[in-house]
Amino acid sequence: MKALIETIVTPLVDHPEDIRIETKEEDRKTIYHLTVHPDDVGKVIGKNGRIAKAIRTVVYAAGSDSEKRIYLDIM
To answer: Count of domains in the chain?
Structure first.
């Protein structure tokens, strides 16, 4: 899942070397914390959060076959 998130986000940012994805496993959910360069935050979120919502939709759909819920937090 980390590779999928990185594949989606890399073309959107100017500083791909600053992409960090941390995973936090809990009983019934997995949380991915996405951190990008401060200059790229707006590009990842998009106008009115449209890009962030689209990224979350793809990630949630890709993880729908697992038993755990998947969450993506953009820091």
So the answer is: 1
